[in-house]
Known about the structure:
The chain is α/β, with parallel strands linked by helices. It contains nine helices and nine strands.
Amino acid sequence: MPHTCKMDSETKEEIPVHEEFVLCGGVETQVLKCGPWTDLFNEQSVNRPKLLIVIIPGNPGFSPFYVPFAKALFSLTNRCFPVWTITHAGHALAPEDKKIVPTLKDPNAQEIKDIYGLHGQIEHKLAFLRTHVPKEVKLLLIGHSIGSYIALQILKCAPELPVIHTFLLFPTIERMSESPNGRIATPLLCWFRYVLYVTGYLILKPCPEKIKSLLIRMGLQVMNLKTEFLPMNILQPFCLANAAYLGGQEMMQVVKRDDEVIKEHLSKLTFYYGTTDRWCPVKYYEDIRKDFPEGDIRLCEKKIPHAFILRFGQEMAGVVADWLKDNLSKI
Length: 331
């Protein structure tokens, strides 16, 4: 039966979200797929969506936090396009009973060096897009925080991918260690990783799963965050250490804005800066506006915070969906 686009007013049925662990770059990778499409290759071409929306998270890249945002976006775009969130390599471990889907043969596939580092995470996303998305399906990328930096690098490294537009939400694409939060985070991340290893293994490793699960449920309740996938990896020492390792590399490597890639792809980019963001302050917004006056570079008027996924997923989905509605003719 063909998938039809539905108006939300017509249907109140539950939005399906499918969790999958795929092997990508040699590492088990959690992908949360919002919508009825789970395998775009085996989908009959008549039913295959013309566009796939891919969310590249910030750090830590715990995909379950993005579920409310993904669902809202799926709804607001009339349920026409799948919305997938790919977790960073090493930020999620598959439960023991979970089957891991092997990757299709990719002629360019090689084991990715330093996959948990920043460059490795870019290669990891490229490997996923090349092996899990049919070439004829157009892509809309949504990068959040360091996901914005990764999205820009995807455009730079893989011009052959059919990316029609990229949203960079609260984009940490320059001067990270100089930002108000970066000044605090940089020294912490350089030694904190080792502290995490030690405390993580001493405290979290012996902690029973039931207690971890209870703590996470209580935390989600406090944050008023509804997601059907418990982000158990928040209390996994291995995942936390990888997030800290990636954070340390961000501080050292995300220094100068890549104006070359921005200039080349400007018509396909929307930047969205926050007014209260301590990772990319308003000055960064003013500077990029000055350098690219013709670009679609916006300053949030709704006081949405950098970590919008915790409470402002609906509002942020509205911003992206409004743009999409105005530009559906391109698809």
